[in-house]
Amino acid sequence: MTAEINFEDFKPRVDAIEEAFQQKWERFRYFVLEPDRPEFAEGLNSFGPEGISLLEKAKSALTQAKEFQTEMLGRKSRLSALRKEIRNVAAADRGVAGQAMTRLELQMSQPLEIVETHLNHFIGTILTRQEALDVTLPGWRPRRGHLHPITLVRERIEDIFVSLGYAIEDGREIETDFYNFTALNIPDNHPARASQDTFYTSDGFALRSQTSTVQIHAMQRRGAPLRMIAPGRVFRRDTPDPTHNPMFFQVEGLCVDRGITMAHLKGTVAEFLRRMFGAQTVTRFRPSYFPFTEPSAEFDFSCFKCGGSGCRICKNSGWIELGGSGMVHPNVLRGAGVDPEEFSGFAFGLGIDRMVALMYGLDDIRLLFENDVRFLRQFD
Amino acid sequence: MLISYNWLRELTGTVLTPLELRERLTMVGLAIDAIDELEGDSILDVEVPSNRPDCLSHIGIAREVSVIEKSKLQIPTSKVTKTEGRAADHAQVEIHAPDLCPRYAARIVRGVKIAPSPDWLVKRLAEIGQRAINNVADITNYVLHELGQPLHAFDLARLTDHQIVVRRARAGEKLQTLDDVERKLDPDVLVIADATRPVALAGIMGGLESEISQTTTDVLVESAYFNPDSVRGTARKLGMDTEASRRFERGADCANVLQAQTRCVELICEIAGGVATDDAIDIYPQPLPARSVEFRPARVESLTSLRVEPGEMQRILAALGFVETPSASPTVREGSQAAGASTFVVPSWRSDVGLEEDLIEEIARHAGFDKIDSELPPSNMAGEYQPVEIKRRDLRRALRSLGFDEAINFSFIDNAHDEQFALLPGLTTVSESAAERLVTLQNPILDEATRMRPTLLPGLLQAVRHNLNYGTRDISLFELGRVFATFKQGELPVEREALALVATGGALTEGRVQAEREFDFFQLKGALEAAVDAMGLGPLTFSSAAIAHLRPGQSAAIFLDDETPLGSIGRLSESLAQPYKFRQPVYLAEIDLSSLLESRGRPLQYAPLPRYPAVVRDVTLLVGRDVTFAELKQAIAAAEIADYAGVVLVGVYEGSNIPEAKRSVTFRVEYRAPERTLRDEEVEERQRKLIDLLLRKFAAELH
């Protein structure tokens, strides 16, 4: 059994630890200060050669602070060894010795904890600053493509008519004379049949000059009642210029039922144009002539740009001419197997290309088929 | 058609201003394009619908105005005061082609003095864009614009034997027309001839030799009705379009022949002097029958929803010249009498009217289209997209999100492309000759574009060239469109819908100039697969194939997994890249979208999630370059290794450290047992078995 020691013998050993602490502490004392104080950075100078960054010095200081802490307070420290000896202190002095040791422990551990916190904070601040991004740089956004404006307008038209109860139909682009003309009540001698106006293949078939051909097929296949639209490519022998192309897109609509009147034609076209060009749009019907409708009407709508007061788009008339329409000619109904005494119907047609030109302010429709990406990329 | 406001006022006594007339005429179907304000008169430019030749005259427009204003039309009454002798004593007329000329009337005025027209006549013609020539010629022109009947004046002295013969031209005959052009004639052309030679193109233009001149004293005034198709055919063939032909080819008024002639003769006597014959020689062997139309007033409302008073209907029809007849025609449908049906005789100038619906239109346009209600039809049908339409939308949007811009090209292309491209499987026909196999236009509008395109690729390549010219080097485009081929002469061509993609340069990132990576074969393949997948269709399979327009070794045929051939994909061949002057690789794909859309979609079906984890093993094999990944994959799947659950590619390496004829392929094999976790040694054993098999089958080495 070891002999008991009293406090007088114990204290110098405590003091010796404190002295050792104080010697090394000298280098760390700056870091008790707030990290934004200039002395804090100055204190880092002893933690690395000149030329290395503050961040490196701070990291080195942090490492050394941790080592210092382990040396002074760790399991293998002199303090730890001394603590094991406290049971050898005489019982009367043991309390005082314990207090002295606890005080020393706090005296060392508290500032070192502060130092570590401050160094961590200091390092964090530098890293945050260094890793700051220019958030206005472009994101990694794959370039998406663009749909053709004709597709965009066609789909919008389709959506409107599907919501009004219409089916979408499509048919052949090269047609027989019968479907392109005869079934549409276009007489044999009509100028539209002439080869100035209609393309013919060497076998004598016609490139459809209107999508009304689809109406005939649809009536023959589905019978009446029927509501359909037929969007698609059509061909007319026009030399390309800013307002003409030998190929363009058209949509034709057909509604056949019992009791259909011109009021329904007007209501349908007006509703369509309101949805297309806005609720304020006014539609006007003028008598006209088409072989496949009787009575026939052209329709205009109030200029969406000026609202009717007159501007460049409407050529100062306040109205924009858009398409043709009418009550389906009884010969057309009969030819497609529908009894005109039982059923009546209306039909209308308009150029999608023209709508594209109007809606996007396009002044030369040849651009539609040039496929210049500088043009295409302006659309959705 | 130019209409003088003053002239119109003489015929109608209209109280409407030119601007009011513009509005009112437009709303009855005669749109006024423009009003030209002249000193003391306004000229209305009327857009006359092609079915209304009667409105190609002041009297025709005046009739519409009188209906609008409920006023009385003041038709000029003609009375020739001084006459002498019978026309037949001075000339003979024969019609040898009554099918092409149902009626011909000739009247003679002797002792005229040819001179410039009086000022009022010159001015009036000038206002409506007509050039004055001499008094007699100007009067015929004046009456044409007044009454709509084309007239012609011959110098009687120049007509051999004073004879008029209306006949088909003989082969080889020629005629110098008034515009000083020598016309070669053939038997399809109807001419007015004298005893020996043609003197006028019937209904189109007179001849130079029989023209009225300063020395003319006796004039033969022609007023006739020619068959519209005949006049149209000849005018088209000879490339002519005259005031006369424009009216005859749409249909003149056969009943107005004598009245217009009388008016003309009256004015000649008044202005140019001379004495007219008492009568005209009027050859009209088979008068055209008057048409009549049955009319049920109730139909007006049932077709237009307009409620028009019966009296107002009567007024409109009567003012337009329709005459109600008390006796119903024998063809009247049963029961229609009870519905208050009546029958109207159509005026001779309204060649466009033949049905009840036509009469309904007459009433509706004068009652006012603006009076018609506007309402949606009762809603009793469901709208529908075609199922393929939805898929097309999915396809377009998928391609858009993959960076492709949508192109649309003309459907006709240059025949120089005939042999350049491999066509889609659905268009491959047996015929060797491009002219028989492809669809050719008889009458192209662009000289070079004579074929209906059998492939979308030439258009897209042209678009690539266009964009490169304008400095865009990173281009990816797609197009959806029909392609065409003839399978059997005389039958409708085959139409298929095709999808084509073209890509060159690199895949761009928005806002950055440098492409992340250059396009290659696999990028385009991946884009196509992703787009097809977005439609819920596919998967596609690819196999190396020689394709006419693609570079060997970088070209593949595309199939559906049931082996339906769909199209091709690959890099554009050098020989095609050269004419386009492409200096960067261009990748192309084209597939038969019709076939793809007809294919069955992938069924969506839930599969239970695996309960035990899979174990994976990577293996790298050194194989010959002729061994494809597809073959390896297939061999692995067919090896029937227990608990095999799938294989995926890790990577492929070719190049240094590898023999030239070899390729290193690394793939990951997955094993999973349904009811337990596999032990390591079990997996090792399965993997070893698989590798042994592959090494043997493909003469491969472990790498």
Draw up the topology in text.
The complex is a heterodimer of chains A (380) and B (703).
Chain A: H1 7-25, H2 38-43, H3 54-73, H4 78-85, H5 91-130, H6 149-163, E1 167-168, E2 174-175, H7 177-180, E3 206-207, H8 212-222, E4 226-235, E5 247-257, H9 262-277, E6 283-290, E7 293-302, E8 319-328, H10 330-335, E9 344-351, H11 352-360, H12 373-376
Parallel strand pairs in A: 1-4
Antiparallel strand pairs in A: 2-3, 4-5, 5-9, 6-7, 7-8, 8-9
Chain B: E1 2-4, H1 5-12, H2 18-27, E2 31-38, E3 41-47, H3 58-69, E4 92-95, E5 103-110, H4 119-127, H5 135-147, E6 151-155, E7 163-168, E8 174-176, E9 182-184, E10 190-193, E11 198-201, E12 205-206, E13 219-225, H6 228-238, H7 243-250, H8 257-272, E14 275-276, E15 281-283, E16 292-295, H9 298-304, H10 310-319, E17 323-325, E18 342-345, H11 356-367, H12 387-401, E19 405-406, E20 412-414, H13 434-437, E21 439-440, E22 449-452, H14 457-469, E23 475-485, E24 494-504, H15 521-534, E25 540-544, E26 550-560, E27 565-572, H16 574-580, E28 586-592, H17 593-598, E29 615-624, H18 629-638, E30 644-653, E31 662-671, H19 680-698, E32 701-702
Parallel strand pairs in B: 4-7, 19-23
Antiparallel strand pairs in B: 1-3, 2-3, 5-13, 5-14, 5-15, 6-13, 7-10, 8-9, 10-11, 11-12, 16-18, 17-18, 20-22, 21-22, 23-24, 24-28, 25-26, 26-27, 27-28, 29-31, 29-32, 30-31
